[in-house]
Automatic annotation (TrEMBL):
NCBIfam families associated with the record: fpg, PRK01103.1
Cross-referenced CDD domains: EcFpg-like_N (cd08966)
Gene that encodes the chain: mutM
Name of the protein in its database record: Formamidopyrimidine-DNA glycosylase
Family affiliation: Belongs to the FPG family.
GO molecular function (one): class I DNA-(apurinic or apyrimidinic site) endonuclease activity
Cofactor note: Binds 1 zinc ion per subunit.
Catalytic activity, as annotated: Hydrolysis of DNA containing ring-opened 7-methylguanine residues, releasing 2,6-diamino-4-hydroxy-5-(N-methyl)formamidopyrimidine; 2'-deoxyribonucleotide-(2'-deoxyribose 5'-phosphate)-2'-deoxyribonucleotide-DNA = a 3'-end 2'-deoxyribonucleotide-(2,3-dehydro-2,3-deoxyribose 5'-phosphate)-DNA + a 5'-end 5'-phospho-2'-deoxyribonucleoside-DNA + H(+)
Coiled coil start-end: none
Residues at the active site: P2 (schiff-base intermediate with dna), E3 (proton donor), K60 (proton donor), R263 (proton donor)
Length: 273
């Protein structure tokens, strides 16, 4: 599943291609992708002829702001992809929605498992799912002190808590595993037992792994691809994720794999306490 660094990579790739472009028409091969009252007919009518003025990101949501004031809000979920097709007229396989742009070029929303969503709203920040999001770990206001305050009084294990989008927005399984290894904290630790010193390390680690993910163009473990079809490279830099039995890069101890809250969890029993 694309996590925040993957969505940030998609955003940076698409921005120069889409900003300032006019949407000539929208095709909805799969109307169930459109989550709005009046559904796809209304969507196609309202976006045709508009210009994309800007693109930005809130957590894992990608937002295209139109000159009409409307915003297209995309969430890729498990297998969603955005493909920029510079000249092709042929729809892609598993295509759900296509935006044809002036001067040629089509943005295709492709989604094998069809769990991704697309909203057209006046203000993305008012979407209930976005209003419910926790703080953005890369925002300046997200400090170690704030993280410690959030952890206090939470009895759940730290790893599923880090992946809970209402607690912190943007971390999924890969980056939660990597951040906990980087911070030297065991994934099964109860959140409220984390000390101020550990919270400082975790705060630094979360930001570091997210930035590292962006630097590598995201992690292509399964379906994630950049809009031009190329793969991300962060999977080559994993320290623990998907490395069960391989030596810990810090101490050489074999990486362990366990299940925590139903998700594959990787850690070093010597470095992470
Ligand atoms: Zn280790």
């Amino acid at each position: 599943m694309p996590e925040m660094p993957e969505v940030e990579t998609i955003l940076m790739d698409l921005k120069p291609l889409l900003a300032g472009r006019r949407i000539v028409s929208a095709d909805c091969a799969d109307p169930s992708a459109i989550k709005m009252p009046g559904a796809h007919g209304e969507f196609c009518r309202r976006v045709a002829g508009t210009t994309i003025v800007d693109l930005h990101r809130i957590a894992k949501y990608l937002i295209l702001r139109l000159d009409t004031g409307d915003e297209i809000v995309l969430h890729l979920r498990m297998t969603g992809r955005l493909v920029y097709d510079p000249d092709g007229e042929q729809p892609a396989t598993r295509e759900r929605v296509a935006l044809k742009l002036d001067g040629g070029g089509t943005l295709r929303f492709v989604d094998l498992r069809r769990l991704g969503t697309l909203h057209l709203v006046r203000d993305a920040r008012r979407l209930p799912a976005i209003e419910a999001l926790g703080p953005d770990p890369l925002a300046p206001r997200f400090t170690a002190r704030r993280l410690r305050r959030l952890l206090r009084g939470r009895r759940s294990r730290i790893k599923p808590l880090l992946m809970d989008q209402r607690f912190l927005a943007g971390l999924g399984n890969i980056y939660a595993n990597e951040a906990l290894h980087c911070a030297g904290i065991r994934p099964t630790r109860r959140a409220h037992t984390i000390t101020m010193d550990e919270a400082r390390r975790l705060h630094r680690a979360v930001r570091r792994v997210l930035r590292k993910g962006v630097m590598h163009g995201g992690a292509s473990t399964r379906t994630y691809r950049r809009p031009d079809g190329s793969v991300g490279r962060f999977q080559e830099a994993f320290e623990v994720y998907d490395r069960a039995g391989a030596p810990c890069p810090t101490c050489g101890e074999p990486i362990k794999r366990i299940m925590v809250a139903g998700r594959g969890t990787f850690y070093c029993s010597r470095c992470q306490r």
